[in-house]
Write a structure and sequence with these properties.
Keywords: Cytoplasm, Methyltransferase, rRNA processing, S-adenosyl-L-methionine, Transferase
Structural class: alpha/beta
Family: Belongs to the methyltransferase superfamily. RsmI family.
Distance between the termini: 70 Å
Number of strands: 10
Strand content: 15-25%
Number of helices: 11
EC number: 2.1.1.198
Radius of gyration: 25 Å
Function: Catalyzes the 2'-O-methylation of the ribose of cytidine 1402 (C1402) in 16S rRNA.
Subcellular location: Cytoplasm
Strand order of the largest sheet: 3-2-4-1-5
Shape: elongated
Length: 303
């Protein structure tokens, strides 16, 4: 029960199963039973979880989701400063990881309130482990923007990311997202689409982005996590002119000036700037058909 002596309480972030309820950590049941306040992303799903675990929540249950997170945070902080033990759970996985929780954690930390966690299942780590891609270094990008232009822009920011990347995506946007990834990262970049992890219809589809985009075009259902191989540390001999030009254009489309884009691509590839510059100029001339028209190309400025 809440501490009436004036000592501040404790915020507990509890991981919940991402599919199979049997994966619930043993401490979760104990925390659900002793919490003064249980803040749940969906109180109905919380009720199903407690029934499955065979536990009863004696504390007050409140909703805490994206729509009321800002408004309810002060209320929960007040309970914490009054000595309450507040348990935060989301629909699946760890609170604050692409789920409600960050605002409450930040507010608690600012007031020197103790914050602890009950570790639990993670879609990010599970997908990484099953992907078959390098896991020694990785980054989590969460959900990409819904609008096509913003989504492309975000992906272009990661065009040269060498770490394995993990994304969440809604099933009805998966085909567009994979097509955009193939456009930005290259259709041959390896990836894995992890669907319904730990559930009855769990599926991990591995392959090049281009093939995965074609596979997803017919529609995919379920909770989706996408794992994408990072950019290769390619040497000069591995990058042809077409690839160099593509990388420069990706950076230009993301807002970089051509000069800076050329310099960045050259540095990443270990090539002289002049070589990348010449590839860009040649591609531009080819597009204009200057050589085909028999005219001598204009003298290009120095990079």
């Amino acid at each position: 029960m809440a501490d009436v002596t004036g000592t501040t309480g404790t915020l507990v972030l509890a991981g919940t199963p991402i599919g199979d309820v049997a994966d619930a950590p043993p401490r979760l049941a104990a925390e659900l039973e002793k919490a003064d306040v249980v803040a749940a992303e969906d109180t109905r799903r919380l009720r199903r979880l407690t029934q499955a675990l065979g536990v009863h929540t004696s504390g007050r249950v409140v909703s805490y989701f994206e729509g009321n997170e800002s408004a309810r945070t002060p209320e929960l902080v007040e309970a914490l400063t009054g000595g309450a033990r507040v348990l935060l759970v989301t629909d699946a996985g760890m609170p604050s990881v692409s789920d409600p929780g960050y605002r409450l954690v930040a507010a608690a930390v600012e007031r020197d309130i103790r914050v602890t966690a009950v570790p639990g299942p993670s879609a990010v780590l599970t997908a990484l482990a099953l992907s078959g891609l390098p896991v020694d270094r990785f980054c989590f990008e969460g959900f990409l923007p819904r609008k096509a232009g913003e989504r492309l822009s975000r992906l272009r920011e990661n065009a040269d990311e060498r770490r394995t990347m993990v994304f969440f995506e809604a099933p009805h946007r998966l085909d567009d997202t994979l097509a955009a990834m193939a456009e930005v990262f290259g259709s041959g970049r390896r990836a894995a689409v992890c669907r319904e992890l730990t559930k009855t219809y769990e599926e991990v589809k591995r392959g090049p982005l281009g093939e995965l985009a074609e596979w997803a075009a017919d529609g995919v259902r379920g909770e989706i996590t996408v794992v994408v191989e990072g950019a290769a540390e390619s040497g000069p001999e591995e990058l042809d002119a077409e690839e160099l030009v593509r990388r420069v254009r990706v950076r230009e489309e993301a807002g970089e000036r051509r000069k800076e884009a050329i310099a960045a691509v050259a540095a990443a590839a270990g090539l002289p700037k002049r070589e990348v510059f010449d590839a860009v100029v040649a591609a531009k001339n080819a597009e204009k058909g200057e050589k085909g028209a028999g005219g001598a190309p204009q003298q290009a400025p120095k990079p």
